[in-house]
Each structure stands twice: as structure tokens, then as C-alpha cells.
Amino acid sequence: MLMRSGRSIEHIIRDIPEEELSDLAELFKVFGDSTRVRILYDLINGEKNVTEICEDLEMNQSAVSHQLKILRVSKLINARRSGKAMIYSLADEHVKTIIAMGIEHIEE
User: Fold this and answer.
1) How many CB atoms lie within 10 A of CB 52?
2) Where are the beta strands (DSSP E) in 1-108?
3) What is the pLDDT of residue 76?
């Protein structure tokens, strides 16, 4: 199987340094929390403010804000200020791909 870079998955896996494997494990830990996955899934269709995310997930702002901070630190989401509100969006298409591949995997 070829990746977009033209390298095979086997080649990438074989050559990855231990430090990057550790970083990969940390990334997957972020996906280990259902609230964070729900937030990411909620942002697939576009950017939202924290109030909208709270309403969609039926959760309080404190709990959602805590998870948003973790997602920002992990570089999975972006935040921008619009007046007094922070607007959140997925960081890039890779996040959508990870979620889509995960869904595809569990549906097999």
C-alpha cells in the first residue's frame, strides 16, 4: 500500500524513530477519550463556538472547555477569536481521515 508521499506504509513503519513512535502513542491517547472524539466528530462539518459544541454534546461548558484545551495542545483543533467567543475547527484534513478510518475499521 502506498501513502501519499509515495512511500509504502511498511517503509514508513520500519524507519520511524522511537521518539516518533512515542509521539504517535500520545496522539492515540487523545483519541482514547469518547468526549474528545465526540468533539472532533462534531467539528467535522465546520467550525463552532463552545456554546454550540456544549449544546450538541449536551455537556456543560467546563467539561467541554477542558477537552478542547487538550485537543488544542495536541494540535488536532484550531481556535480563533471572534469578538468575545472562541471559534473551534479541525486542524486539518488528517483529523477527518483518522476519524473516517477509525469508523471504517470498527464497521468491518
Assistant:
1) 15
2) 48-49, 77-82, 85-90
3) 98
Instruction: Please say if the pLDDT value at position 6 is more than 80.
Output: no
Quickly tell me which residue has 506504509 as its cell. 9
pLDDT for 92: 96
Starting at the earlier edge strand, list the strands of the sheet with 77-82.
48-49, 85-90, 77-82
Sign for the pseudo-dihedral over CA of 53, 57, 59, 62 = negative
The span from the CA of 49 to the CA of 62, in Å, is 14
DSSP letter assigned to residue 8: B
Average of pLDDT values for 10-36? Answer: 88
Q: Are 56 and 48 in contact (CB under 8 A)?
A: yes
Helix (H, G, I), strand (E, B) or coil at 80: strand
